[in-house]
Every structure is written in C-alpha cells, then in structure tokens.
Amino acid sequence: MPILCADIPRLPGLESICLVAGLRGSQITVRWPYVAEDETLGPWLRGGELIFITGINQRRSEQNLQQLIREAVEHKAAGIVILTGSEFIRSIPASVKAVANELGFALFEQPYSLPMVQVTEVISNAIVQDNLIGQSTRLFLTRLINGYADTPELIHLRAADLGLSDSRPYAVLALRLKGFSQRLSRDDPADQWRFIHERALLGEQLTELLMRRGIDWPVLEYEQDLLAIWPTTAAHSPALSDELTQALERLKPELEVFTGVSDLQPGLSSIAKAAEQARHAVQFAVQQDQALFFYDQLGIARLFDAIPQRSVLAQFCQQQLGSLCFARDPRSTMLKETLSQFMNYFGNQQQAAESLGIHRNTLSHRLKRIEQLIDCPLNDPFARLNLQSALLIEQILFQHHNIES
C-alpha cells in the first residue's frame, strides 16, 4: 500500500511527529520527502512531496507559513512538517493551523530534537520498499492476466506473500476514457499530452477510490484500459450495479469514462478470464455509449463471442449488411446507427427518429438508402432479426480487432 500522510507518525522512530491540522488531507499519498530552504515552494514542487520547514536558513513569519501552505496545496504537495523548538520556529501559530484545516491540507509538527537525517531516511526507505512491493504485485497480477499458468494453491500463496487478500469473490473493472484511440492517433502533440495526462489522473483517482474503500489491489494498465479488482460478496452481487454507479460518480466529471464489469470470480486463477470479460464489456459500453456495462448484459452476444471461427461470423455479417459491413466512414456509421435505432424501436419510425434527433422524413430517406445497400426489405421480421444479429456480430469482430491490434 502507498505511504500516506497519516502513516508518517506510525513509521518506526517517527512517533514524535504529530498531525496538528488538516485531518481531511491525511489520506494523500507521499511521493518523496523534501526539505524546503527557499522563501517560496512553487518552483521546486512536482506533486506528492512531504515538505519539511526547518526555519534554519529562512526566517519564517506567520504570514510566510500561511503562504507556504497555500503554495503547497496549489502545487499538489502531500503535506507540510514544521520543525519547532526554542531556536528557530518556536511553535506553529493558530492561524497557520486554521489555514491547513480550511484547505484540508495535512500539517505536522516535528521537534528539532528528532534528527532530519533519520526522518528522511525512514520515509525514503518506506517509499522505496512500497514501490518495490507494488512493482512485484503489478508484475504478479499482470502475468496472471496474460494467462500465466499456475495452480490455484500457488497463486494463493504468492498473493499472501504480497499481502493481498484473495479470500473474497471479485469482479474486474475495465475503465476507458472516451475517444482513446481517436485522440492518440491525432497529429496534435498537445492534445495527445492532455489525453495522457487525463489517463494518469484517472489512474490516480481510481487508486484513491479503491483506498477509501479499503481495497488494497493496485490499478493496472492494460493497453487502452485501466483494470481494477473489485472485491465483493456473492450475496451482494445483485446490488453491485448500484454500488459501482455510486462509487464511480466520485471520479471527476470532466473525465468521460466507460466502465466494463466482469462476472464474479471466486479466485485469482480466474483473473485472466475476468479481465477479458471486463474488456469485452467496456468495448460494448463504448459502442452503446453507456457509462457502465456488465458482461452478463451481452446476452446472445456471449454465444457469438464464443465461436472460434471468426471467418464464419464475418461472412454472415457481409451477407446481411452488404457494403455497410465493417465500414467505418462517417456516412456508413450514421446509416448503421440509424438501422440499429430503427430496430431497437421495433420499426416505429417516429420513436426512432426522435431518438436520433432527426425528422421522420430524414429517417425514411435513410431507411430507403439502407434497403438499397443491403438489398433487403426492412419490413421482413426475419430480415430484421438477421440484421440485428449481424450488427451485434460486427461489434464483436471490431472488438477483437481492437484488442488484438
């Protein structure tokens, strides 16, 4: 587990460090200790630092300490530790504590008698050790997701060695930012950088969400998706949709995220299967423009997905959809969306037109064009059944192409 601000006084030898304000910020992860000797902090911060203020080389007024807290919050530092004693900073002013409480920023007090070299060594060693364990955990889980074969007993023992509790059933979540492939394929480096930053931010928020719920599994990166293990109970599974909806609402609203959810699995030996299910589900979430999609919602699509001979499925799609099959140009995509909505509303043109936000005459014109392209009347119920199946199979084949490529 990451080292949090709240963990600092619990580390061996650091018991004399006390949290004196900003309790709400005590769950922030500490990336590294930093001893500040300049009047300001901004130019030297990268985020996640636990800042130590000694007052030895800089006289620190009450106003300056208040300003340091505001700068630290602005630059996303983890917390501030102020050293107090008889020589430099005698005590932490009440107004400084008030600012920390107001901003929800962790503020600690450390006696000068506690050597800084000891403090930084203990914290640095704890962070390095946590990083090494975290890397081992990610490697272990990544190998399992990629189909690394081992017995359930050995997997359980390895999980226990890493401090992971795998005694509860779990689902795997696959989260994908809206427009992942399109935005990364653009030539605009600034837009690509913003998107990569958003993905990193999503990973941080997801990690914090898991930590708040006492879930000690790390967030994994797998191609275009972020994967998270969500422990639950078999008895609780009917309410899992509501639970995940409420939890995911805590993610920043400006991040448009699709989430796919696997079936419940009993142990880590099934994690490769669960990850594949979650990634299938998130692909359908993207295609259906649905924020949360469960694998068991796929219904008959699970049967098509299980057919190993993809060429047979592709041939069926081509027979039913004609030139529209596998076409991704804007016009073909628009016509297939029109066809899908028309069939979703059981051939009711008025409802289909309203769902598409177009005039009924426009819908009628599109449907005639579709009939010409597929060479099949849309008033035939068996033809509509085949077309619905073809559109569903096409999504599955697109999904496998995206995952494998």
UniProtKB/TrEMBL annotation:
Protein name: PucR family transcriptional regulator ligand-binding domain-containing protein
Species of provenance: Amphritea pacifica
Matches recorded under InterPro entries: CdaR-like_regulators, CdaR_GGDEF, Homeodomain-like_sf, PucR_C-HTH_dom, PucR_C-HTH_sf, PucR_dom
Family (UniProt): Belongs to the CdaR family.
Source species taxonomy: Bacteria, Pseudomonadati, Pseudomonadota, Gammaproteobacteria, Oceanospirillales
All copies of domain CdaR GGDEF-like, residue ranges: 152-283
Domain Purine catabolism PurC-like: 8-127
Residue ranges of every copy of the PucR C-terminal helix-turn-helix domain listed in the record: 335-393
